[in-house]
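Z., the sequence and structure:
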Amino acid sequence: MESHLQVIDAFVDGERVDAAALKDALADAAGRDYFVDLWMLREAVQQDREAASIDRPLAPRRTAARAAGRWLVAASIAVGMAGSYFAGYRTSLVPPGVSAPPAVAAPARAEFPAPAPTRVIQLEFQLDNPRSGGD
């Protein structure tokens, strides 16, 4: 690439260039054509970037209201759990007038005794069988 075209490249890329060298490069017809082609190419690339960013969904931004909403949900769950615990503690199955349930519960008395067995099955195990396994 010629040196006067490199000055045009640097100018289009946003780099600092010598003004006199740029004027000399643009004075030539080939330099002006190169500048226009390079500028149009840059514009096409910018449009492709914008189109690609439009097709892609934007990431949701966290706002103070969303963060406060999450804290409110967490606080309401904690308050609900604490309230449920205390409500269950206050309404336990302790009869009125009794301060606390007994530490050891007495065994429950059988209302209906089990019937007597009608038949007894005896099982005998023999451990002297030489064949064992799935042969």
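The helical segments are 3-12, 19-27, 29-55, 64-90. The radius of gyration is 45 Å.

Let me know what you think.
H.
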